[in-house]
Amino acid sequence: MCMGKYLAVIFLLVVLSGCVSNPIAQNLRSQSRPLTYTQVTANPKTTAGTVVIWGGRVINVTNRGEIYVLQLPLSHRGRPTGEDTAIEGRFIAVSPEFLDPAKYPAGSLVTVAGQLNGVRNERERNDFFRYPLLDVKQIYLW
Questions:
Q1: CA 113 – CA 124 distance, rounded (Å)
Q2: From CA 37, how far away is CA 81, in angstroms rounded?
Q3: How many angstroms separate the CA atoms of 104 and 60, rounded?
């Protein structure tokens, strides 16, 4: 009977360990640097080429393979926390592949690992936004 409980505990630990793993590949996590939105927008030339892992809430998907994301803090698992009070800014995840707006609807949460590639300035109504460009290496939809 004791052996059965022991095996049940091991099984449970194996199952739960799968739930807490980070969806971003280990090699990308080891390459990434903890740069903030503010650091990147202040120094786009010196941060270009750096791998970062950012996430947030999808704002829009274009037919050019771009996802506009409202940046949110990430949990230890790499999931955007949903804490809209901690928003630093917005970024654009740029993919060479088609990103289907039906798969990435507005409001969904994503985590993106990618290489910084400058900053794009865009005007929306009367506001200007500085969007760091992130060339996608991996994207995870929550």
A1: 26
A2: 16
A3: 8
